[in-house]
Amino acid sequence: MAQSPPIALTIAGSDSSGGAGIQADLKTFSALGVYGASVITALTAQNTRGVKAIHPVPADFIAAQIEAVASDLAVAAIKIGMTGTADAITAIAQGVGSLGSVPVILDPVMVAESGAALLDTGAEQALREKLVPLATLITPNLHEAARLLDQSVARSEDAMRDQARQLYEAGARAVLVKGGHGRGAEAVDIFYDGEEFTRLAAKRVATANAHGTGCTLSSAIAAFMARGEPLGGAVEHAKAYLTAALAHADELDVGSGAGPVHHFHGVWGDEGEESGGA
Questions:
Q1: DSSP per residue over 237-257, as a string?
Q2: Whole-angstrom distance, CA of residue 178 vs CA of residue 191
Q3: Per CATH, which fold does 7-272 belong to?
Q4: Is 277's pLDDT higher than 50?
Q5: Which pTM was predicted?
Q6: Is 153:143 a contact under the CB 8 Å cutoff?
């Protein structure tokens, strides 16, 4: 009998090295038992050592991709990552807005880990005004949360809670401030849904192979929501999935720089044999 898998859509940039962006999202969807569709917003020439060039996709073609997917596939959740330009953001907002009540996870990608700018001039304001209010959840890291608020980077959990609250008051429906770039023995994220704060902590994994962590977490949340989980549960399970992917990252030898997390840690065993679920 033919299967009808849950379907998640990623709207993001392409990473030619396969560690982040569209490629990381599709790997995450697949690892978590979700069928992945994609809308590409930008092409990047990059590897584990950094971003070499960026080629934005025209806004009208982004809109055409969204319409093509939405008119045929029963999309159950959407992840939005790299948007690139203000025009692209407008097209995404219009396209996603036409899909109704589908959960939307927004990873407000602004700057690559290498420091390369990933948003055009004027695009940051468009992101704040058009995509943040549209999203079910936004997932900024410490630097992105500070940039969205024009403030200093949070240096404590109390400051993370305060910025999560401010982002909610600025129009976000729920906020996950990610502490992976912080310090300490634990990697602590703060989730705020407008009613209560939830502290999500995991032992910090010592690895240089952490490329694509933000993409992986946001797409994992979208995958769990596509499978029918409520937002809070999806966030918790996505955090556990990412932590395991980081813990197994050094099992992969990819590139000579910052390698990817191991999206298929629960699928690939020794010599390619299956080793169980995620």
A1: HHHHHHHHHHHTGGG---SSS
A2: 9
A3: UDP-N-acetylmuramoyl-L-alanine:D-glutamate ligase (3.40.1190)
A4: no
A5: 0.94
A6: yes
